[in-house]
Write a structure and sequence with these properties.
about 130 residues; alpha/beta
Length: about 130
């Protein structure tokens, strides 16, 4: 997994925090009680779930496509972060069982109080 070095910038106009890599590319946005992903790779998703849990009480709600939610639920399980989506319970259980058997993560993956979601193709900010 690549190393991700983030810095944040507060935008007083939109009232949200932009998390960017050191070279400037945006990784995700945080506002109110929501994180919106703008980059999709293992490092970005790991950082987003950790930051969401740290900011909003150690648990997250996941929104987006099925594949995205499954991937993020597995990452949250690996990080010991609670996921509030009841429909993801079997994925969380399977990941905890896999970890207890000492099996490696699925190929390509080394790893409410808040919602983490994919970026909407038509709108950068879905708002609440």
């Amino acid at each position: 997994m690549r190393e991700l070095r983030l810095h944040d910038e507060w935008d007083p106009v939109t009232r949200r925090k932009r998390y960017r890599e050191r070279e400037g590319s945006e990784v995700f946005l945080a506002e109110r009680r929501r994180i919106t992903m703008t980059a999709h790779d293992e490092a970005a998703e790991t950082a987003a779930v950790r930051i969401a849990a740290a900011k909003w009480g150690g648990k997250v709600e996941l929104q987006g496509t099925g594949k995205f939610r499954d991937r993020m639920a597995r990452e949250a399980a690996r990080q010991g972060i609670a996921v509030e989506n009841a429909d993801l319970a079997s994925i969380l259980e399977n990941e905890h069982e896999r970890m207890s058997r000492g099996e490696p993560p699925p190929a390509g993956r080394g790893r409410p109080d808040a919602a983490i979601e994919e970026e909407d193709e038509q709108s950068e900010d879905l708002g609440r």
